[in-house]
């Protein structure tokens, strides 16, 4: 099994805090927030279970929280750390563009991209998508347009 990765040069990050994400009302924003929150929770739980060699609490705090060293020092090593306690403190989480999201969805990824398999020590096989790996830019553009329009229609629909 492999995981998708999009080159940073092809993505458009926007830093949002978890608190800012919780306030987003648009369905696309809510979907992205839920997907990223779930992914971050899986990462946190994997670290807690010792399933991710080389990743620990300190790495997580440095990566996703600004006062990482303070947080790590304040955390009781014997106390179980709930993701629900961690999530409100997350302030460094990138909201990537729709193209990045599509690269992470298996059906869309196979239709639109031809990723290069790369190996990463400790993480296994990653699928890297670079500028030359978008096989059907016109289909990607149409799909992005359709998804945006669908989200707008859903957000303005009047409930029955």
From TrEMBL:
It comes from the Bacteria. GO terms for molecular function: hydrolase activity, hydrolyzing N-glycosyl compounds. InterPro entries: Ribo_hydro-like. This is Type III effector HopQ1-2. The lineage of its organism: Bacteria, Pseudomonadati, Pseudomonadota, Gammaproteobacteria, Pseudomonadales. The gene is hopQ1-2.
């Amino acid at each position: 099994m492999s995981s998708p990765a999009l080159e940073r040069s092809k993505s458009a990050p926007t830093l949002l805090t978890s608190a800012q994400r919780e306030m987003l009302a648009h369905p696309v924003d809510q979907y992205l927030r839920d997907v990223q929150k779930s992914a971050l929770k899986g990462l946190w739980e994997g670290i807690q279970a010792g399933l991710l060699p080389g990743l620990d609490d300190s790495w997580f705090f440095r990566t996703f929280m600004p006062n990482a060293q303070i947080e790590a020092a304040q955390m009781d090593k014997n106390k179980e750390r709930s993701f629900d306690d961690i999530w409100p403190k997350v302030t460094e989480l990138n909201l990537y563009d729709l193209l990045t999201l599509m690269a992470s969805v298996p059906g869309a990824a196979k239709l639109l991209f031809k990723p290069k398999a790369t190996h990463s020590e400790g993480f296994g096989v990653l699928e890297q998508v670079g500028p030359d790996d978008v096989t059907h830019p016109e289909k990607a553009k149409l799909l992005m347009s359709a998804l945006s329009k669908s989200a707008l229609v859903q957000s303005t629909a009047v409930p029955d």
